């Protein structure tokens, strides 16, 4: 069974998948932590909505982000061991999803204040987290 603790002590470093270690305050650790938060927030969005199309989209985005998180948490050796990585196909699929949703909603003419309903508010939280992960 996989353990969630390493017993390697806390010397200010963390292991990447592949075996190398980096400082815990490294931007990579922040980036994959932020992506992990976004995956969890999208899970809340998924659980909040009953719209089957939205749930399918959210699940697809979560899966893609999970792969991204694995890439961020891997060193060069670990990357060669991953069964899946982000490629042009995944990027194109996300771009198509964005384009489809933008076509349905139309162009924004003003900023949107979150809170119209619970699902909408949760999606706005996810949006802000995605902006944060983009900054890493």
UniProtKB/TrEMBL annotation:
Swiss-Prot/TrEMBL catalytic activity: 2 cob(II)alamin + reduced [electron-transfer flavoprotein] + 2 ATP = 2 adenosylcob(III)alamin + 2 triphosphate + oxidized [electron-transfer flavoprotein] + 3 H(+); 2 cob(II)yrinate a,c diamide + reduced [electron-transfer flavoprotein] + 2 ATP = 2 adenosylcob(III)yrinate a,c-diamide + 2 triphosphate + oxidized [electron-transfer flavoprotein] + 3 H(+)
Keywords tagged on the record: ATP-binding, Cobalamin biosynthesis, Nucleotide-binding, Transferase
Gene: yvqK_1
UniProt lineage: Bacteria, Pseudomonadati, Pseudomonadota, Gammaproteobacteria, Enterobacterales
Enzyme Commission number(s) of this protein: 2.5.1.17
Organism: Klebsiella pneumoniae subsp. pneumoniae
Translocase keyword on record: no
One family name in Pfam for this protein: Cob_adeno_trans
Single GO term (MF): ATP binding
Pathway: Cofactor biosynthesis; adenosylcobalamin biosynthesis; adenosylcobalamin from cob(II)yrinate a,c-diamide: step 2/7
Boundaries of every Cobalamin adenosyltransferase-like domain copy: 4-128
Protein name: Corrinoid adenosyltransferase
SUPFAM superfamilies in alphabetical order: Cobalamin adenosyltransferase-like (SSF89028)
Superkingdom of the organism of origin: Bacteria
């Amino acid at each position: 069974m996989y353990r969630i603790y390493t017993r390697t002590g806390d010397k200010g470093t963390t292991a990447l998948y592949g075996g190398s270690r980096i400082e815990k305050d490294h931007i990579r650790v922040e980036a994959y932590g932020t992506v992990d938060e976004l995956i969890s927030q999208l899970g809340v969005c998924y659980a909040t909505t009953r719209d089957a199309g939205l749930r399918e989209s959210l699940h697809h985005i979560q899966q893609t982000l999970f792969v991204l998180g694995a890439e961020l948490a891997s060193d060069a050796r670990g990357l060669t061991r991953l069964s899946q990585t982000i490629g042009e196909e995944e990027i194109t699929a996300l771009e198509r999803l964005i384009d489809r949703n933008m076509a349905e909603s139309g162009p924004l003419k003003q900023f949107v204040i979150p809170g119209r309903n619970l699902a909408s508010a949760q999606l706005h939280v996810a949006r802000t987290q995605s902006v944060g992960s983009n900054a890493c």
